Amino acid sequence: MKNTFGTSVSVTIFGESHGNSIGAVLDGIAPGIPVDEEYIAHQMSLRKAVGKISTPRREADAVKIVSGVFNGKTTGTPITFIIENQDQKSKDYGELAYKARPGHADFPAQMKYHGNQDFRGGGHFSGRITAGLVAAGAVMLTALKAKGITVGTHILSCGGVYDRGFENIPEDIEKLKDAEFAVLDDSVKEPMIEKIEAARDEGDSVGGRLETAVYGVPSGVGEPWFDTAEGVLSHILFSIPAVKGVEFGDGFDLADMKGSQANDSYRCENGKVVTATNHNGGITGGITNGMPIIFRTAIKPTPSIYKEQQTINLNTFENTDLQIKGRHDPAIIHRARVVIDSVAALAVGDMLAQRFGTDWLADIND
Amino acid sequence: MKNTFGTSVSVTIFGESHGNSIGAVLDGIAPGIPVDEEYIAHQMSLRKAVGKISTPRREADAVKIVSGVFNGKTTGTPITFIIENQDQKSKDYGELAYKARPGHADFPAQMKYHGNQDFRGGGHFSGRITAGLVAAGAVMLTALKAKGITVGTHILSCGGVYDRGFENIPEDIEKLKDAEFAVLDDSVKEPMIEKIEAARDEGDSVGGRLETAVYGVPSGVGEPWFDTAEGVLSHILFSIPAVKGVEFGDGFDLADMKGSQANDSYRCENGKVVTATNHNGGITGGITNGMPIIFRTAIKPTPSIYKEQQTINLNTFENTDLQIKGRHDPAIIHRARVVIDSVAALAVGDMLAQRFGTDWLADIND
Amino acid sequence: MKNTFGTSVSVTIFGESHGNSIGAVLDGIAPGIPVDEEYIAHQMSLRKAVGKISTPRREADAVKIVSGVFNGKTTGTPITFIIENQDQKSKDYGELAYKARPGHADFPAQMKYHGNQDFRGGGHFSGRITAGLVAAGAVMLTALKAKGITVGTHILSCGGVYDRGFENIPEDIEKLKDAEFAVLDDSVKEPMIEKIEAARDEGDSVGGRLETAVYGVPSGVGEPWFDTAEGVLSHILFSIPAVKGVEFGDGFDLADMKGSQANDSYRCENGKVVTATNHNGGITGGITNGMPIIFRTAIKPTPSIYKEQQTINLNTFENTDLQIKGRHDPAIIHRARVVIDSVAALAVGDMLAQRFGTDWLADIND
Amino acid sequence: MKNTFGTSVSVTIFGESHGNSIGAVLDGIAPGIPVDEEYIAHQMSLRKAVGKISTPRREADAVKIVSGVFNGKTTGTPITFIIENQDQKSKDYGELAYKARPGHADFPAQMKYHGNQDFRGGGHFSGRITAGLVAAGAVMLTALKAKGITVGTHILSCGGVYDRGFENIPEDIEKLKDAEFAVLDDSVKEPMIEKIEAARDEGDSVGGRLETAVYGVPSGVGEPWFDTAEGVLSHILFSIPAVKGVEFGDGFDLADMKGSQANDSYRCENGKVVTATNHNGGITGGITNGMPIIFRTAIKPTPSIYKEQQTINLNTFENTDLQIKGRHDPAIIHRARVVIDSVAALAVGDMLAQRFGTDWLADIND
Asked: Beta partners for B4?
């Protein structure tokens, strides 16, 4: 299904950047999970545009829950999140009705939707649609946390500046929880922001790498084929606009290792099976092995730049030039990280519910 | 569904390395597509173990089609491929019944299947199961070819030796078609094989990178969210044992570019819309733009190595040492490439059938 | 997926009877289909409670479209319909928080949701949730009509009074289009309404049979197994609260026929293949044969009655008596028929989109 | 997916009546369930043609399990059942290559598959394909039995002769287990068989009604919308060739009842919640209430009759006459009942696995 993802627990998203509302429906979630609207608002705030390194567009992003929550808890039936669009300035986008922005979906959308798509602000392709994923993900993150599973993402690189990798994962995840600009080594924050500001000043944009840890997932989750933990996670990760690469554990670096380097030895420590290293990122044979799931995503630079670009007119298919105006992010990597946390939680939560049943997430024992 | 992938056109796989048979069911494929058993045998031969750089296990890999083909053509109902296992030497595997091989699925399988899994030769986790995907993929590759769509994969790197990238894609794909060791620059073949042989001689193994081009896919295929062309392809690519990373276009390198570098300008050439560059690998906004789809996969080194390793006893959870015997590949990258071609064809064919209807692949006009 | 139905075209529903809003997301619908809000309002009015034979609850049922429609046409991305609940009188339902209404979902819901369900007015089980299906169905009915496919349902029986069957199907469907109480033979309307009023006066309720025709579906739609036209239709039909039986063509009466009576002979008339009779209701082998699809649904009497009933206390599991108060329908059959039309359209539209591709419904030819 | 059914536990079927083999793949079944090949053979024998009231075609129907079973137990990975076709006499079917048999799928198949379908013996539409469902169902029936869930179907009516309904359900199911001609009241067996023989002697056929009980399903299984217990069961039941109606509980008779008659009062007996009556067939609001699930299916008379019939030539679309030869069943109702048991078990088992997790069926507690 096109805008629905998941098997036992699914999420459906809808909306356009400059339409009336955007939102999401979270279905199949266990009953009895506390829904904390403040936590949802907190997660939404992490996704929001902030400061000089983001778009000047400002949305309140108030999430209205219109179904599925009763007396502050999930009912077990679909939770619907509605986020009204308020700060649309559609008149800015006039020329973009017929000029395809390079790096954007405008041209393929024209070929798929035959000119009926809502082109304003990227329409249904807008990164703004991820707000629904963040709202739905917040409920799942709450459920996972009660089961000892936490998720955190940091900006591993931005504009060529690198953060350190994960070390003590539970502590690192805790540190990232409230960070507006999520890095593990505080000293790289300013250099990264400088790169973003420099790009903005040139009318250009930058991308980067995000690294994510999912801590506490039990072993035995995922399938040997097709619905491998990697396959399911990558499927939803590539939905996030700008993600062009996903790798697990040491990922592409594994291609250069010997087997004797890449294999993670099993050890039994205090009655628990662990691996001495985690080159495989917590997943072997498509199934979790109880070690932290580690993956990295490549975020391409924001395609909306102010520099003049060559393109075509979508009506006449003639060559033309394009000077994008409007409000745009010189980087979205600091905003994307909470989206990654959210979709990772949704994917992992779904795999757990398939494995252990719907109620598992709520730990109901009656 | 666990061992079934696809929406309009789906493939179901089954079997264990040392069981009676392995195979696949290809469902939803258009009626009237010629099924050329010689071509299937050819594709199977590309996946086969050959020479000194592969496992000494030799399987005839004869594919028996037991349903869905009538008068040499697809009927439109499920095609079932059965490949009997012949050269099993299960006695080799005794110790592996209770010692978890590092880098393998043995431990997670134990946690998921509670000791009921067929451990012999990796059981259902064995790379041998990909033979069914190659058989099913051969039918889809035939159908795609008749629509002008071709697929080719080369070994971009192996043991640190690099091949050149794609240049003239249709010609490069043609060149790769029958290659036993698929490289574009013939001069890198021997150096790569030397790396594999050196690893084998050390009782070790190597991995590498594969690069794939899908040529001729029309624009407008894929979805903006979830079932993005990248998401669907990555989902099935990560099923292939040893794949630990997937990237599209310039992938992780995009993370270091500026927007002005990464954006692919549209141009109209001879009435056809093309992009001046293809940093996005033929997909923007999750939807194909008509340019070749380009992706790379990271293949980790084969985990079955002869060097002694530390691990646990799966019954007692005590630490132990493991010396793998049996027959193993020092590298599988040269065998994996036809599997990648096959699953890429299955995923792209499914997306096309969803977009244009079941019959489109057969181009029936009555 | 629990609250999502469909493969190429899917619908997701959400909401509770006394929550903030109910609604639906229609996804996968072709771009460029005109969305006529007046027609949607008309369809909603057919579902509304009217006159003395329905619940005194009155809802404006104003449908707000918050995504997926641009310039009066479908964009091809998800259409979201929001219907705010306004006339909730939750205080009426106090006792029902802990007493299971016989014939209702209260007890199974308690066992499934462990007391977290929104019990007010039936919560997510309420027939009110069908309003979202009617809104989504209206868009599909518009698309189908443009392809020559029409759908109509009449009250075949109510309280033991029978309507005539379909005769001239296109004319009969046209006649039913705007009927508040949908019968083909006008003379049975008053007798049926008298039965409903008599039941209401006794504090009781009645059920009935609905008969539906789907006219103009081309042959060759549906699958031989599992996704048979009958299987897909029955799956969504049984979602409608109170439906307890579904039969196609002569249905259960076929069980008493000889093969020579039940077989529909093929004839070629004016270059078109038809059948002399339609005992099979337009479907053989799970696939449409081009004749009208005919099915009947059994609607059980509304379970909310005013007569005293025996039941249990959901908290203590002790036996108790129940006297339902509040506002209830003595019959819902006259309201259900537009829901049947809507879900039949959604199911048939999905099968057509799978067969002929997403764009088929919009007949885009560029 | 076309030939795959189920979410957590799925079955994929394949094959043609006169092809090489037919079979099924059962996926997602819990590990550790004993697989008793004798029981599978027993179930196959119940489906087999026997005596004068069935087709003279005789198949050994030996089921070969080629994957997914190890040491006599399920592994948790796909179980593949292969049944070779042996007694094909394809030369009998010559004329049927181009003459559409009334009541059969020949004409819709021609429109769907454009002449590529395997027409021999009904091809993929043949009732013979249900053999795979019986094999897969046998494994699920074994798993369910260990959890206290049993399934039984009897011939409620055949040729106008009626059996008694279910009374003491566990005992009745036990009685039906091995019956070659499954009736509850032995005195109706001969009258029913006489009706079948009389039809056969006239070159005609008969149908009937089957009634099924699923005993021991816990409450709280199924979903409020779409994946209602009724919707999921009916979906797979309508796959069985010749099923044209499905009703739950009192089904169509509920349409003539008052609410006060149809509602099932809840009672607490010995600490267990039961209903005083079971008019709703164990399901309210789409969810099981712990009472036996009861449903009836309408089986149309076998369409292959020896009487001359009118039809069309599929190549020329001209009117013609048809005299079916070959080997055919004058009734299939006595063979269909084990197929109903099998698909009911598969559907119920899948719903249980979704609700309680994959392992629940195997009751693994480690």
From this structure: B12
Shortest CB distance from A12 goes to which of C25, C65, C115? C25
- Min Cα distance A241 → chain D (Å) is 28
Cβ atoms of C158 and C242 closer than 8 Å: no
Burial (Cβ within 10 Å: 0-12, 13-18, ≥19) of residue C148: exposed
Which among A150, A289, A286, A298 is positioned nearest to A214, based on CA atoms? A150
- Per-residue pLDDT tens for D116-173? 999 998 999 999 999 999 999 999 999 999 999 999 999 999 999 999 999 999 999 9
Q: Give exposure, D330-348, as e/b (b: 16+ Cβ within 10 Å).
A: bbbbbbbbbbbbbbbbbbb
Q: What one-character DSSP code corresponds to residue B292?
A: P
Please tell me the distance in Å from A242's CA to the nearest CA on chain B: 8
**Dist CA C182 CA C199 (whole Å):** 19
Q: Which residue of C has its CA nearest to B8?
A: C354
Closest CA to B353 of B215, B214, B216, B221: B221
What's the CA gap between B333 and B299, in Å, rounded? 7
Distance between D358 CA and the closest CA of chain A, angstroms? 5
Burial C276-301 (b: 16+ CB within 10 A, else e): eebbbbbbbbbbbbbbbbbbbbbbbb
pLDDT interval class at C51 (50, 70, 90): low
Q: Which of D192, D217, D207 is nearest to D278 (CA)?
A: D217
Mutation site, C8, C21, C25, interface A, largest A CB count within 10 A: C25
Please give the helix or strand (H or E) that residue A14 lies within, else none.
strand A10-15
Structural contact between residues B92 and A248, judged by C-beta atoms closer than 8 angstroms: no
Token pair recorded at residue D74: 């399920």
Q: For residue D316, give every residue at least 6 positions away whose Cβ sits within 8 Å of its Cβ, in sequence order, or none.
A: none
Q: How far apart are CA D134 and CA D47, in angstroms?
A: 8
Distance to chain D for B192, nearest Cα, Å: 36
Q: Which residue of D has its CA nearest to C258?
A: D206
In this prediction, residue C211 carries a pLDDT of 98
Q: Which of A13, A237, A50 is nearest to A135 (CA)?
A: A13
Q: Name A155's bridge partners.
A: A210
Residue type, D189: K
Contact at CB, B4 and D6, closer than 8 angstroms: no
Residue B51 has pLDDT above 80, yes or no: no
B77 and D364 in contact by Cβ < 8 A? no
Whether C135 has a pLDDT exceeding 70, the answer reads: yes
Segments in chain A forming alpha helices (H): 37-47, 106-113, 130-146, 169-176, 189-201, 229-237, 259-262, 333-356
Q: What's the first-to-final CA gap in chain D, in angstroms?
A: 34
- Interface test mutation site (partner A, options D25, D352, D354, D361, max chain A beta carbons within 10 A): D354
